[in-house]
Design a protein that fits this description.
- Helices cover 37% and strands 18% of the residues.
- The chain starts with 6 loop residues before the first helix and ends with a strand.
- A 7-stranded mixed beta sheet has the order 5-4-3-6-7-9-8, sandwiched between helices.
- The protein is elongated.
- The chain has 303 residues and is α/β, with parallel strands linked by helices.
Length: 303
């Protein structure tokens, strides 16, 4: 993704006096974003930013394309456009992101929920068709994984933890924000650096985590949305395996017999994760592909 458009295009953004209708501004946003996105993504981004700026649904844009908008709404949209041109993720600009058909509040203190992580939610649900279960979500961030599971399972007891106090606060806000969509009140969000504040004797049927797994020297960190996300939620030493190894090793003390551990990882790390699970005596090791067909989630059973 290009970080900036040319200076001349930036000047155009602040001299748009002839753009006053929804359709004019929508097409303008698309033309700006097409410089660094494909046509579909450019259209999606323009729609999200414009509907947020005028506080209307996306369907309103197509229903009332000739509608005039106020100067304040126009200026807000143009500021959104410039922030997007500068590379800022749309989710951070509008403060929300959809995951598992739920709207999550997001903030720069943690990762933006991504569609491929839904693979983890699907794997847990498909492997656990039971009404009662205890689950721990390590490094919950926005609370996306924990709350997606809570929305599907009424009686599961779920703990969601994060070392970052801001992330913990955000996850708690999402519990309240999504309260009407949740089938269960049995979700407990609290601060913990991995297992540090989890009771020594506390055990779970399932542990899930989307931990940091990017090598600190990876060029990926200089590209796209990750430039605006916290490094603490992205990078891990030992070629990206340090936190994964710590979780695998320590999770054995917190899993019931036949308990399951699910880990999200980089698409080139599945063999390394499988090796670590075998080293710590996990069995029934399985890797699940994401929606792009890449190995993304690996699970093992603690016997």
């Amino acid at each position: 993704m290009s970080k900036h458009l040319s200076d001349s295009h930036t000047t155009d953004i602040v001299s748009t006096s002839d753009l006053n209708t929804i359709e004019q501004l929508f097409q303008y946003g698309i033309s700006c974003f097409c410089c660094f996105e494909d046509a579909y993504d450019a259209k999606v981004d323009a729609k999200v930013l414009l509907s947020t700026a005028i506080n209307k649904s996306s369907s309103y844009l197509s229903t009332w394309p000739e509608k005039l908008i106020s100067a304040d709404q126009k200026n807000l949209f143009l500021s959104f456009v410039q922030r997007r041109i500068d590379g800022e993720p749309v989710a951070f600009i509008v403060g929300k992101q959809e995951f598992w058909s739920l709207e999550f509040l997001v903030a720069p203190c943690t990762l933006i929920p991504r569609p491929d992580t839904e693979t983890l939610v699907e794997a847990v649900l498909n492997n656990n068709a039971v009404s009662v279960l205890s689950l721990l979500d390590l490094g919950t961030g926005t609370g996306a994984i924990a709350l997606a599971l809570a929305s599907e399972q009424r009686n599961w007891q779920i703990d969601a933890i994060d070392f970052n106090e801001q992330a913990v606060s955000l996850a708690k806000n999402n519990v309240q924000h999504l309260k009407e969509h949740l089938n269960t009140p049995n979700i407990n969000v609290y601060q913990s650096d991995w297992f540090s504040n989890v009771g020594q004797q506390k055990k779970f049927d399932v542990i899930v985590s989307n931990p940091p797994y990017i090598d600190p020297t990876d060029e990926l960190l200089k590209q796209g949305d990750v430039r605006f996300e916290p490094l603490s939620a992205l990078i891990s030493d030992d070629n990206g395996y340090a936190d994964i190894k710590r979780i695998i090793e320590q999770s054995r003390d917190h899993l019931n017999v036949n308990g399951q551990l699910y880990l999200e990882h980089g698409f080139e790390q599945h063999q390394g994760v499988q090796t670590l699970l075998k080293h710590f005596n996990f069995e029934q090791i399985t890797t699940f592909n994401d929606y792009g067909g890449n190995p993304r989630i690996t699970m093992g059973v603690c016997t």
